[in-house]
UniProtKB/TrEMBL annotation:
<dbReference type="GO" id="GO:0004144">
    <property type="term" value="F:diacylglycerol O-acyltransferase activity"/>
</dbReference>
<dbReference type="GO" id="GO:0019432">
    <property type="term" value="P:triglyceride biosynthetic process"/>
</dbReference>
<dbReference type="InterPro" id="IPR022742">
    <property type="entry name" value="Hydrolase_4"/>
</dbReference>
<dbReference type="Pfam" id="PF12146">
    <property type="entry name" value="Hydrolase_4"/>
</dbReference>
<dbReference type="InterPro" id="IPR007130">
    <property type="entry name" value="DAGAT"/>
</dbReference>
<feature type="domain" description="Serine aminopeptidase S33">
    <location>
        <begin position="175"/>
        <end position="377"/>
    </location>
</feature>
<protein>
    <recommendedName>
        <fullName>Serine aminopeptidase S33 domain-containing protein</fullName>
    </recommendedName>
</protein>
<keyword id="KW-0012">Acyltransferase</keyword>
<keyword id="KW-0808">Transferase</keyword>
<comment type="similarity">
    <text>Belongs to the diacylglycerol acyltransferase family.</text>
</comment>
<dbReference type="Pfam" id="PF03982">
    <property type="entry name" value="DAGAT"/>
</dbReference>
<dbReference type="GO" id="GO:0016020">
    <property type="term" value="C:membrane"/>
</dbReference>
<dbReference type="InterPro" id="IPR029058">
    <property type="entry name" value="AB_hydrolase_fold"/>
</dbReference>
Length: 709
């Protein structure tokens, strides 16, 4: 069948989507934004893509099969390795809602001649690595394709981004759009069969993504659905069709409410823009300017969604919802659903729960204070969301080591702010041991070069981790990669929990599911690894078991550390008994039928560890101890002298020798705990009240003294 290529931009284009222009004597260069022009939407049997380059103001079109699109080896763009993620370049791109309207207006003018839907890559997406997966953005009801404008720069460093633009006058049916996207997905999947294809769909685009996934269950797809329109039958838009048909001409008078629906709350958004300013007079002035600026974009909304187009898009949503819902059972792709709490167009949170229950590989994430166009709002970073859900991968499966991207300064600062209360309440004291055996306050005795394995006691509910990992980052710029229970990474049907979102912070900070292969990869990458041999049994201990080690009999980690010549740092952490007291433990709950059935049900669904281990540590029954808070005391951490394993590989191949070292490490941890329990009795600032008085007189950022080591 015939295919049609068309240029999305006129010769005089917005500088955001500028083209490289050279003299006629120069060799043609690849277009820096790689505008990919899609094909006819309903008559396509094999996708072709038009790559546009220029040597003069006269345009040159080169048609290629999309499978033949290869990266120009001579391209001079700088490539950024994901593993050497540049923090300064990753902290957002400064785009705003204003930029969305400005650039949308340019695109509408440039494509005013019509034509079929088409792909384009925004210039600010920058450069990505050769092994970066493809990300196709499928727009919502606006159809512009700029819904990721506030995400382009960060996403562009880890994805090859193509955005779909649907011209205002285009009337392609839903099945036509599905076939267009499907054709591109198949072509690119064939070109890079070992890498996944990401489909980020917003509203209407989410239905397209679901339809493509249902029709192609054998293709490796990752779906990120933003307020999907699969709930259109419950949407307020459905009831507006008769009203819109009665309104003559344009519907500019209705666009103020459309703007509110689009941004969630324009007044709140304008307030957010000036919230960081301190003086009252400039704030009022800026607030007024922001509200005026928002209202000035009503004509642009009228251009994006004139009456005829809006009616068409609503009918398209209706068809899309029916099509996608009828084929949900066929969707096998990995899926992340982002749901807004203030979506006035769709019941998105309810829909996210429905999809999560219906689809095995679907995980929801809720954003309670945001509107329908989530990705255009402040405080929403799609890269951070993807990292938190462990959804970024460059191969068939997510690799928790090679696919990991360290937290940026903004991500880390936000996490610290969210858990600042814990730092204030516990005022952690860090002690380490120098090479000469001297105990000092701080982490100067911690080896800066990896691999290093930290082995210690796990406090109640893992409360110690909330202060331990941030303190290492703040004081030593060391990221501890914790080994955590697998149930925090997989849905209940896979041996995990029903809601995984509370553990997104752990994944952003580098925690990985505990396993031999993951420990091997972390050691081989010279990481600083945090291991609690007592695991769940220690963190969910019973009454009266504070600071009692529940370690397995076998030396699970010693020979692994020895293989890579890692330093092993035994440490103790004390303070749980100064923060909370257990009132209902495992033994109490097993006597109550309701709690007993809950424990048994959760234990059956949870991933089982140490099934071949004997002793109390093998008791992996999953439950939640019920503690009551105390007047906050203090957390104390003591890191013993690092134990060298380098050069002992042959010696420690002997199981008996390895077991001797294992018992030595366990003994050192017990000594660290005993030392802290004794020394904290001499700390005049163990209670929170003396600490608050000290900080009130010396400044709240001052370090509170403690006992002499």
């Amino acid at each position: 069948m015939a295919t049609v290529g068309a240029c999305i931009f006129s010769a005089v284009s917005s500088p955001v989507f500028r083209r490289q222009i050279t003299s006629s004597s120069e060799k043609p260069k690849r277009n820096p934004i790689l505008k990919r022009v899609a094909v006819s939407t309903e008559r396509t049997s094999a996708a072709t893509t038009t790559v546009m380059t220029e040597t003069t103001p006269t345009r040159i079109f080169v048609e290629k099969k999309s499978s033949e699109l290869v990266e120009d080896e001579a391209e001079t763009k700088q490539r950024v390795n994901v593993r050497e993620y540049s923090e300064e370049e990753s902290e957002g791109n400064g785009k705003s809602l204003k930029d969305y309207f400005d650039e949308a207006e340019d695109m509408i003018k440039s494509s005013s001649g019509g034509g079929p839907p088409r792909w384009f890559s925004p210039l600010e997406c920058g450069s990505h690595t050769r092994d970066s997966p493809l990300l196709l953005f499928l727009p919502g009801i606006d159809g512009v394709g700029l819904g990721l404008i506030r995400q382009h720069q960060r996403l562009g460093k880890i994805f090859d981004i193509w955005c779909l633009h649907i011209p205002v006058k285009d009337r392609t049916s839903f099945t036509g759009l599905v076939k267009l996207v499907e054709s591109t997905v198949r072509s690119e999947s064939n070109r890079s069969p070992k890498r996944p294809v990401y489909l980020v769909g917003e509203s209407l685009g989410a239905c397209i993504a679901l339809a493509v996934a249902a029709r192609n269950p054998d293709i490796d797809l990752v779906l990120i659905l933003v307020n999907p329109a699969t709930s259109f039958n419950k949407s307020v838009l459905q009831s507006t069709i008769p009203l819109l048909e009665l309104i003559p001409g344009q519907i500019t008078t209705m666009l103020s409410s459309t703007l509110s629906l689009m941004t969630g709350d324009p007044l709140k958004m304008a307030m957010d823009n000036v919230a960081k300013r301190l003086s009252l007079q400039p704030t009022i002035q800026d607030l007024s300017q922001d509200l005026v600026a928002l209202s000035s974009y009503l004509p642009v909304l009228a251009d994006i969604l004139p009456k005829e187009t809006l009616l068409w898009k609503i009918e398209l949503l209706k068809a899309a919802s029916a099509y996608a819902n009828s084929r949900l059972h066929a969707v096998k792709a990995q899926m992340l659903v982002l749901c807004s709490g203030k979506d006035q167009l769709m019941p998105s949170q309810e829909e996210g729960e429905r999809l999560s229950s219906a689809l095995h590989k679907c995980e929801p994430r809720n954003f309670y204070g945001h509107g329908h166009f989530l990705l255009l709002e402040d405080g929403v970073d799609l890269v951070t969301i993807i990292k938190g859900a462990s959804y970024y991968r460059r191969g068939r499966n997510h690799d928790y080591v090679s696919d990991f991207m360290p937290p940026t300064s903004s991500e880390f600062n936000k996490i610290c702010e969210d858990f600042r209360w814990m730092r204030v309440l516990s005022s952690p004291v860090m002690l380490s041991t120098l090479a000469n055996g001297k105990i000092v306050r701080g982490l100067s005795g911690i080896p800066s070069e990896g691999p290093v394995l930290f082995v210690g006691y796990h406090n109640l509910l893992g409360l110690d981790v909330l202060t331990l990992i941030p303190e290492f980052m703040i004081e030593s710029n060391i990221l501890l990669r914790g080994l955590a229970h697998p149930m925090m990474y997989f849905k209940s049907k896979e041996g995990g929990l029903s809601d995984l979102s509370p553990y997104d912070v752990m994944r952003i900070m580098g925690a990985v599911p505990v396993s031999g292969i993951n420990l091997y990869k972390l050691m081989s990458s010279k990481s600083h690894v945090l291991l609690y041999p007592g695991g769940v049994r220690e963190a969910l201990h019973r009454k009266g078991e504070e600071y009692k080690l529940f370690w397995p009999e076998s030396s699970e980690f010693v020979r692994m550390a020895t293989t890579f010549g890692a330093k092993i740092v035994p440490f103790g952490a004390v303070g749980e008994d100064d923060l909370a007291q257990i009132v209902l433990d495992y033994n109490d709950q097993m006597k109550i039928p309701y709690f007993k059935s809950q424990i048994e049900e959760l234990t059956v669904t949870a991933a089982r560890l140490r099934t071949d281990t004997k002793g109390e540590v093998a008791n992996q029954d999953m439950h939640m101890p019920y503690p009551v808070p105390k007047v906050p005391g203090r957390f104390y951490f003591y890191f013993g002298k690092p134990i060298e394993t380098k050069g002992r590989k042959r010696e420690l191949r002997d199981r008996e020798k390895a077991h001797e070292l294992y018992l030595e490490i366990k003994s050192e941890v017990e000594k660290c705990l005993a030392y802290l329990k004794e020394k904290r009795e001499n700390d005049p600032y163990r209670n929170i009240l003396p600490r608050l008085i000290y900080q009130a007189t010396h400044g709240f950022t001052s370090q509170v003294p403690t006992f002499e080591p």
